[in-house]
Every structure is written in structure tokens, then in C-alpha cells.
Design brief:
The protein is mostly helical and 199 residues long. Helix 2 runs parallel beside helix 4, helix 3 runs antiparallel to helix 4 and helix 4 packs antiparallel against helix 5. It is globular, with a radius of gyration of 20 Å. The N terminus is likely disordered.
Length: 199
């Protein structure tokens, strides 16, 4: 957990970031007062994105289970893309079905780390990226907890089936998009606190 915060996190205080000590009044005090609302807005964006991704995933899975499971697949784009209900005990895209509990623990740990790091967030792109990760992790974790065969061993509902590719769901898509965005932001040198550094 501490290692994850070291990699993704940013300092809580200006002093730890190498900035000058915060003043209770004057220009520095005004700057700090402005930073706090900005940080709260980024947190709001993070959780709004997470709620949207989670709700979209949850609703889509409910529809798939009710209307598509135990029924023939639906062709969306010929045989290139179809909707087919699959129960997946593994990780994203069907990998590692023998390690369901491990993936459940990893998803829970990701959620805890993101929630702890949210208070240090001042970058809008990072808020969106972490929100996608959080929403996707929550979506698949919900399946792990509440679906059969049992608590923490539940099979995830997958239904998006491209030709010659693994079947996945919207939570998987959110996780992958969030991860790609984080990689791009890291390459651009943008830190979660909004600062830009160049190697």
C-alpha cells in the first residue's frame, strides 16, 4: 500500500514537495485557500466518473443476465462483434481463472489505494483516469462478491465479444482506458498534483 502511494501519490503538504512553507496570511495563504477548493473539485470529478462507469457497468450486466444469458448471441457488426453472455471467473478478458480470490483482493486493494490518494489529487486528467479505474474495479468486485458460485469467488459477467478476441465487459474497458490514460500522463510528465516535470 505504501509503495503504491509512493508511485501514484503526491505530497500532502507544500513543505514535503519542496515548496516554501505555507503562510497563514498574505499571498501564500490565499494560494493555499484557492488550492483546497480546486482539490475538492478534482475529487468530485474522480468520484463522478467512478459512479458513472460503475452504474453503466452494473446496468449493462443486469440487462445481459436478464435478456441474453441462456440465449443465442446477438450479432452487432456481422461476425466481427457480437453480444454473448459469459461467466468469467478470471481477471480481465478471461485470464487466470484459477486465481479468482487473488483478483478479488487486488481489486479491493486498488479501490482502497485510490480512495486514500483522492485527497492529494489536483489534476483533472488524473481524476478522470483514477475515476475510470475505480469505477471499473468496483464493477467487477461487485460481481466477485454477489454472484455465484460464492462470496469473493463470484464469476464476472462478460458480454462484449469481438472476433478473435477475449470476451469482456464495460468494467474491463474502464480499467484499460484508465490505465492507458495514466501511462500517457506519466509520459507527458504530468503528476497527480497538477505539476509538470521533465526528465
Amino acid at each position: 500500500m505504501a509503495e503504491a502511494e509512493r508511485i501514484i501519490g503526491t505530497p500532502d503538504t507544500p513543505e514535503s514537495a519542496g515548496a516554501e512553507p505555507e503562510q497563514s496570511s498574505g499571498a501564500d495563504g490565499q494560494q493555499s485557500a484557492e488550492a483546497r477548493p480546486r482539490g475538492r473539485r478534482r475529487i468530485a470529478v474522480l468520484f463522478a466518473v467512478a459512479v458513472f462507469a460503475y452504474a453503466l457497468d452494473l446496468i449493462s450486466k443486469m440487462i445481459v443476465v436478464a435478456k441474453l444469458e441462456h440465449h443465442p448471441p446477438i450479432e452487432v457488426v456481422g461476425d466481427w462483434l457480437r453480444f454473448e453472455a459469459i461467466r468469467n471467473a478470471g481477471a480481465a478478458f478471461g485470464f487466470g481463472e484459477a486465481f479468482t480470490i487473488i483478483f478479488t483482493v487486488i481489486a479491493a486493494a486498488v479501490i482502497v489505494v485510490i480512495a486514500r490518494l483522492a485527497r492529494k489529487l489536483y489534476s483533472l486528467p488524473w481524476a478522470i483516469a483514477l475515476g475510470l479505474l475505480l469505477g471499473g474495479a468496483l464493477g467487477n468486485l461487485t460481481d466477485r462478491i454477489f454472484r455465484s458460485p460464492g462470496v469473493f469467488e463470484g464469476a464476472v459477467v462478460d458480454f462484449i465479444a469481438p472476433k478473435h478476441f477475449a470476451v469482456f465487459n464495460l468494467a474491463d474497458s474502464a480499467i484499460v482506458c484508465g490505465g492507458i490514460l495514466i501511462v500517457l500522463l506519466s509520459f507527458k510528465g504530468l503528476d497527480p498534483d497538477g505539476t509538470v516535470h521533465k526528465d
